[in-house]
């Protein structure tokens, strides 16, 4: 295969890949039995397509798509719990109760928990900001009341969970 043929095949396989991804989006709405059939087809397509593309990339490395640049983590909030002044109608225990109700023993993204807690606070008409929730979560972790992984100032890049019951 010469370069022109490789370029043409590469283009068609990339287009086919995009079409299959669109079809997969629709297939996920099918009933379980139909999804199984479609999943088997997809596995075969992706395996075969990847095999051909790797052969092309081996011969013509410049055709390999460049990897997407990694997103630079950004601090979501630098507010510390010691700097927070809660409204008179809300106590730390009230906020803790909501935070704990959103956690499970499975690690979950801090951003998701912050968002879920803020939605609940809005439902209760509490003037609690995401920054306050994030600061409280950091404090709970610092006090060893919840488990965490990653730097909790980076909500999208850290995870939290309830402490396992057997750790008492």
Quick structural overview:
With 168 residues, the protein is mainly α.
CATH architecture of the largest domain: Orthogonal Bundle
Give the % helix.
40-55%
Amino-to-carboxy terminus distance: 65 Å
CATH class of the largest domain: Mainly Alpha
Overall mean pLDDT stands at: 90
Show unreliable segments: none
Strand proportion, as a percent range, falls in: 5-15%
Oligomer: single chain
Instruction: Note the run of SSEs as H and E.
Output: HHHEHHEE
CATH topology name of the largest domain: Arc Repressor Mutant, subunit A
Specify Rg, calculated over alpha carbons. Answer: 24 Å
Please provide a written account of the structure.
The longest helix has 28 residues, at 32-59. The chain contains five helices and three strands; from the N terminus they run H-H-H-E-H-H-E-E. Strands 1-3-2 form a three-stranded antiparallel beta sheet. The model has no long low-confidence stretch (mean pLDDT 90). The protein is elongated and about 75 Å long. Helix 1 (3-27) runs antiparallel to helix 2 (32-59) and helix 3 packs across helix 5 (130-142). It is mainly α. The protein folds into two domains: 3-63; 81-167, Arc Repressor Mutant, subunit A (Orthogonal Bundle).
């Amino acid at each position: 295969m010469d370069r022109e043929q490789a370029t043409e095949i590469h283009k068609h396989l990339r287009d086919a890949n995009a079409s299959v991804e669109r079809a997969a989006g629709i297939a996920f709405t099918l009933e379980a039995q139909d999804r199984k059939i479609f999943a088997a087809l997809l596995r075969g397509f992706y395996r075969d397509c990847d095999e051909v593309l790797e052969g092309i990339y081996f011969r013509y490395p410049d055709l390999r798509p460049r990897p997407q640049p990694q997103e630079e983590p950004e601090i979501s909030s630098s507010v510390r719990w010691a700097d927070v002044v809660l409204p008179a109608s809300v106590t730390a225990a009230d906020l803790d109760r909501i935070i704990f109700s959103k956690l499970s023993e499975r690690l979950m993204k801090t951003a998701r928990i912050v968002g879920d807690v803020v939605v609940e606070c809005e439902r209760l008409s509490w003037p609690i900001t995401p920054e306050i929730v994030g600061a409280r979560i950091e404090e709970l972790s610092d006090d060893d009341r919840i488990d965490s992984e990653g730097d909790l100032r980076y909500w999208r890049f850290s995870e939290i969970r309830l402490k396992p019951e057997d750790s008492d």
